[in-house]
Design a protein that fits this description.
Number of helices: 2
Distance between the termini: 64 Å
Strand content: 25-35%
Radius of gyration: 20 Å
Largest sheet: 16 strands, parallel
Number of strands: 32
Helix content: under 10%
Structural class: mainly beta
Shape: elongated
Amino acid sequence: MQIEDYNKPAEQKFRENFSTGQKTIISEDRPEKATPDNTIRAGLIRALLLGTRAPPRPEGCGSRARGSLKSWILPVPLAMLRCTLEKDITLFDCTLPGLYLNGSQLPALRAPRLLCQGSLFLRHGFCAMGKVDLAGAKITGQLDCSGGKFSGEDVALDCSTITVGADVFLGNSFEAQGTIDLTRADISGNLELWGATLRKDFIAQGMRVGIWFIWRGLNAPGSEVNLLDAHVGTLMDQPGSWQPVKHLVLSSFRYDRIESEMDVAE
């Protein structure tokens, strides 16, 4: 389809705002029902992203995106805030300056080997009904999933072999129904799980965390935690923080410092 053929009211508004770099606000709330006034087809977003030569960031709020997004090199960051996506976002081997999906809901995010030259935000009410796949991704900024809901039943969040140049936030009411996989993840900053709910396993075999590994205030009923051969800068935990864990693997787990309120017996 030609860009001019995307003529729903929401699409026309998005096209006009994109040309000037303005934010497109359809609604302040995430839409529950699709209408022409709140629906933007993914093909339009893809066409604008791949065809742009200008610096504006495509940004939408409170809209519904229909169709799959699949691209290669995007010249501008993509922000879709409080949107409802009817199909997966697919970003295999994609390069982009930043990805912001705060408050949005989608079936799944498939972005293995993503190169994000900035931050990736899946926070503040973000909801994935299936797997979020960031295996092998490289993120130069933060990966912030604070307050996100990850409902994939098998693997909820796959960050195996991921490289993050700053902090990773999996706290502040973060919730994962399935496994979190951080096998051989390399995180330059902090890894924070303060106030997270883990319904299944936390696998971080061979993980590297440069600064703080914060394990406090978790709700992790019956989960397995595997830190085999993991190495962190400073471990911060608290009394009782490990008690809900069903099976704990700590063989060859190393930390350079520890900040803990627990005594030796605990």
